[in-house]
Write a structure and sequence with these properties.
293 residues, mainly beta, 1 helix, 20 strands, globular, disordered N terminus
């Protein structure tokens, strides 16, 4: 066979291979079984997506679902009063045994009352009432500073990112649990990278440090974004609430949960809760103050 014939055969073979193979699929990961992005990983509308984490609670941006309105123009303004005698917050006695923590006499923060108003109370629309398609908001930042968690109470939506920092020049570990189940237990030595975590289910989660036993914080995960945490003045404001009758809950780590019903009609409504210190400790936080001081 001459050289020209051999070249012709090779050319035909190459052409056949191209026809059989075809062009690469240009549909990307979605056509090959790649996982879709998880809820809460996209930036809120109007945000750059690379902003710094929120200092406490991260608000979600509700969006329409199934053609209906997932949000409205209502505002719930909540005030949480404390009418009893609050337990005196002192410096935990075990701080004196900790090499770094003993240098600062920091009073405990389980019960903070200012002018008859209670701080660190979650107030929000109870789970299971709303069916909107809500995306989680910006990451929520929780810091370990002065051998205490800041904030004491945070609130997120399922799979909303939490950025847990260690600003202390000493070892901490973050032991996160829900009920009797430990979700993660991760050491954070001095200078360690931030932990980036999230919770998949609704409910109350507890954070503690096994190195410094008095350190404790709580994260409430809600199925909707209509919540807030009371500040030093015992108030919080919840915006973009859809119209309707809503069951609103107030939860405190020492005094548990209370409920009220409010009706939103596009404007502002107020709701007041009251604790007096005689309430039973919630199951998520039994005996925290026992032998602490």
């Amino acid at each position: 066979m001459n050289t020209r014939s051999m070249l012709s055969i090779a050319t035909l073979a190459l052409a056949s291979a191209v026809v059989l193979t075809g062009c690469p699929d240009d549909k990307g990961a979605g056509a090959t079984g790649g996982k879709p992005s998880r809820p809460g990983t996209t930036a809120k509308p109007g945000s750059s997506g690379d902003t710094a984490p929120a200092a406490s609670t991260g608000k979600a941006e509700p969006k329409p679902a199934g053609g209906g309105e997932a949000y409205g123009k209502g505002v719930i303004k909540a005030t949480v009063k404390f009418t009893g005698t609050a337990p005196e917050m002192k410096v935990p006695k075990k701080r004196a045994e900790a090499e770094f923590c003993k240098d600062e006499e920091v009073k405990f923060n389980a019960v903070v009352v200012n002018d008859g108003k209670l701080q660190d109370v979650f107030v929000g629309i109870a789970d299971g009432q709303l069916s909107g398609d809500y995306e989680a908001g910006s990451p929520v930042e929780i810091d370990q500073k002065g051998c205490m968690y800041h904030p004491r109470l945070a609130a997120v939506m399922p799979e909303q990112e939490m950025v847990i920092k260690n600003s202390d020049p000493t070892l901490h570990n973050v032991n996160a649990s829900k009920g009797a189940t430990t979700l993660f237990n991760t050491a954070q030595p001095k200078g360690a990278p931030d932990l980036k975590k999230s919770f998949e289910e609704t409910g109350v989660y507890k954070l503690k440090c096994d190195v410094h036993s008095w350190m404790r914080a709580f994260v409430i995960t809600s199925d909707n974004p209509f919540f807030g945490v009371t500040g030093a003045d015992g108030t919080t404001s919840i915006e973009k609430v859809p119209d309707g009758k809503h069951k609103v809950i107030a939860w405190h780590s020492q005094y548990g949960k209370k409920e009220k019903e409010v009706e939103v009609k596009g404007g502002e409504v107020t709701v007041d809760f009251e604790f007096d210190g005689t309430e039973e400790e919630p199951a998520e936080n039994k005996g925290e103050l026992n032998d602490l001081f």
